[in-house]
Amino acid sequence: MQETTANRERVDVLIAGGSIAGVAAAAALAQLGLRVLIVEPSPDQGRRLAGELVHPPGIDGLRELGLLAEHDGLGQKVQGFAVFSQGGEAGPQPMVLPYGEVDGKRPVGLAIEHTTLKERLLERVKTFNAVDVWQGARVTAMNSVEGGSYVATVDTGSAESELRVHARLILGADGPMSQMRKMIGIQYETQRYSGMMGTEVSDAHLPYHGYGNIFLNQVGVSYAYAIGGGRVRVMFEILKGADQKGSIAAHLAAFPDEFRREVQEAMMASKPLAAANYCIIPETTVKGNVALIGDARGCCHPLTASGITAAVKDAFVLRDALRKHNLDVTAALREYAQVCDQLQLTRRTLAEELREAFLAETPQAKLLKQCIFSYWKTSPQGRAESMNLLSTLNSSIIALAVQYAMVALQAFRLLPQWIKSNALMDWVRGVIGLLFKSLSFQYVAITQRVK
Ligand SMILES: Cc1cc2nc3c(=O)[nH]c(=O)nc-3n(C[C@H](O)[C@H](O)[C@H](O)COP(=O)(O)OP(=O)(O)OC[C@H]3O[C@@H](n4cnc5c(N)ncnc54)[C@H](O)[C@@H]3O)c2cc1C
């Protein structure tokens, strides 16, 4: 495209994507006095199965940015997780994991229907003086210019549609399947774990009120949590290559009778929503004047329900790095990448380990699962530390390595049980595996600290 003054736009920051990461970043960077333009393709937000449960650090962050207010009355309060395990590790009642106390207070999260949350955030950021939102527009190309920077081409969605947007900083906040990543040639590893199906029911028979209900099952994980307005979101995981009908039947069998009946009726009444669960690891978070943020920067299995909270944290890290380096984009992005990569490593490792423990059937995974539940049952401190890591309140890989070692030590408490069931050799194999994993975490933690 030939660039002229008529088709050129200049802003401080261009953000591709007006969902959680894009809006949080816009609000955070507006605080630095920067002029921000958000480009969001969806003219209106269709219903979508994606993040809804937001941990306390995410909710606090959205409030601090002026994007949510306590009196909004959106969603439903969440006090932590209630974990039901088909293997019986939790016992007849779920394992209840409240958020750990901070300064003597127990923080609360919120679960808000995804589209409602996304719409609310976008509407709120439109009221910010320093932020412009072009809805129905998208970034269609990224051209490299002198000095390794990029200029974006934006399809505005109107008649004379294309504009060249020059920005000191460009953010790719365009989700897990980011086109921005591709346009600037950032390679990434991707792994599709499973699909997800979701429906809504009334909150009358939610098995454990006030908490995110998680059901661990050999066919995958299912979730149920209140999203406000008397409604509950229910989601089932369908593992790659698994029989869908059989998986749904197995998930439903884990629910109490009345709740199961309601879910079955809802699934017959309307087509469930669907989504896919990926692990995506880009080779880098920044390139030139472009930074990836939110799911575009990398995502993992939604087991820990931390994608939204992590996206909000990214926005703060970026704001603080720009402030510290007096708006020097190169220096700030270097710091942003380093901090975010460490946060993401902890989040991804935790999700991977929990997924492995809850779904794999090796002696090591079985032992790890029993160790986790034994740790939670016997240590209130352990429950609080686990929730601090799950909710990203603590994102230190060292803390994760320490917690992993504490969990692994539970293997000795469980030894008599394994001997009784004639599985001593499996226990030995499991312990060797856990020990090896624990040492490799310590190594990663130490090398991260040295960096
Ligand atoms: C089934 C499922 C359940 C989940 N549950 C939870 C949960 O309970 N809690 C939690 O915290 N997280 C959860 N997550 C993760 C959470 O949904 C994501 O982490 C979060 O939505 C990421 O937000 P984002 O803004 O980075 O990306 P997205 O929400 O994916 O938004 C990307 C935006 O970019 C726009 N876009 C695309 N292309 C372009 C372009 N070329 N130019 C401009 N804009 C573009 C899109 O229209 C979209 O609005 C879940 C995910 C899944 C799949």
CATH topology of the largest domain: FAD/NAD(P)-binding domain
- Identify low-pLDDT runs: none
Count the beta strands.
Answer: 18
> H/E series, N to C?
EHEEHEEEEHEEEEHEEEEHHEEEHHHHHH
**Structural domains: how many:** 3
Our measurement of the CA-to-CA distance between the termini, rounded to an integer number of angstroms, reads 43 Å
* Fourth-tier CATH superfamily name of the largest domain: FAD/NAD(P)-binding domain
Largest sheet: 8 strands, mixed
Radius of gyration: 23 Å
Mean pLDDT: 93
Ligand identities: flavin-adenine dinucleotide
What is the C-level CATH assignment of the largest domain? Alpha Beta
Basic shape: globular
Proportion of residues in extended strands? 25-35%
Give the helix/strand class.
Answer: alpha/beta
Count every helix, treating DSSP H or I runs of 4 or more residues as helices. Answer: 12
Q: Classify the helix fraction into a percent range.
A: 40-55%
Which CATH architecture of the largest domain is right?
A: 3-Layer(bba) Sandwich
InterPro entries: FAD/NAD-bd_sf (IPR036188), Squalene_epoxidase (IPR013698), Squalene_monox (IPR040125)
Family: Belongs to the squalene monooxygenase family.
EC number: 1.14.14.17
Enzyme class: oxidoreductase
